[in-house]
Amino acid sequence: MLEKIGKIQGQNLQDLHNWCQNHRYLLKPTISRYAKGRKELWIRRYCDLKKQPTITEGFRDERLEALGDRVLPNFDIGLLLLYQQGVKINLHRDHTVFSSTAVSINLGEATFLMAEMVGKGEKLQPQCYHLTDGEVIKFNCKMLHGIKAVNQERWCIIFWHLKDIFRNTISKIIINKI
């Protein structure tokens, strides 16, 4: 369900925390209805998460994009997230624009929840995974997942590939801008 694929440590971890703090002013309130109080910044591309989504250029940063390409080669879109104390994201599946694999870099402490759908009328019993500072995870974002309310500030950087149909859409938008 969830695979721990790496850990950022030492000076690299401290530098990433500093980068996040230095770019805090760029964050906007989330557009997700599942994560009230969360703040976000779309990386490389922006998606409005509507039923008929529009994908446009997002925030560009060489360092962050190089990191994304290391953990998810040729990623299409990413999201820098800030969860302040008490903020959570309810169980959800990621938008249909995204392929099923997501890679997330955890900065801080969090309890990640993941659950499979069960039969109608059965109570959902998500599995809990404790995430530590610097952990890099890979998971199927089409399965129900979420984050319990955090006890202290937590950052997260998540990367996805777009489904081919949406990747073609963004290519046309970028070509039309030139």
Tell me the β content: 35-45%
Elements, N to C (H/E): EHEEEEHEEEEEEEEH
Average pLDDT works out at: 89
Number of strands: 13
For the report, how would you describe the main beta sheet?
7 strands, antiparallel
What does this structure look like?
The model has no long low-confidence stretch (mean pLDDT 89). The protein starts with a strand and ends with a helix. 21% of the residues lie in helices and 39% in strands. It has helices spanning 10-22, 62-71, 164-177; strands at 2-7, 28-29, 39-43, 45-47, 55-57, 77-83, 89-92, 98-107, 110-115, 127-131, 135-140, 144-147, 154-162. The strands form 3 sheets. The protein has a 7-stranded antiparallel beta sheet with strand order 1-11-8-13-6-3-2. A 4-stranded antiparallel beta sheet has the order 7-12-9-10, with no helix packed on it. It has a two-stranded antiparallel ribbon with strand order 4-5. It has a single domain, classed as Alpha-ketoglutarate-dependent dioxygenase AlkB-like (Jelly Rolls), CATH 2.60.120. It has 178 residues and is of the alpha+beta class. A hairpin with a 7-residue loop joins strand 4 and strand 5.
Q: How would you summarize this macromolecular structure in one to three sentences?
A:
The chain is built from three helices and 13 strands. A hairpin with a 7-residue loop joins strand 4 and strand 5.
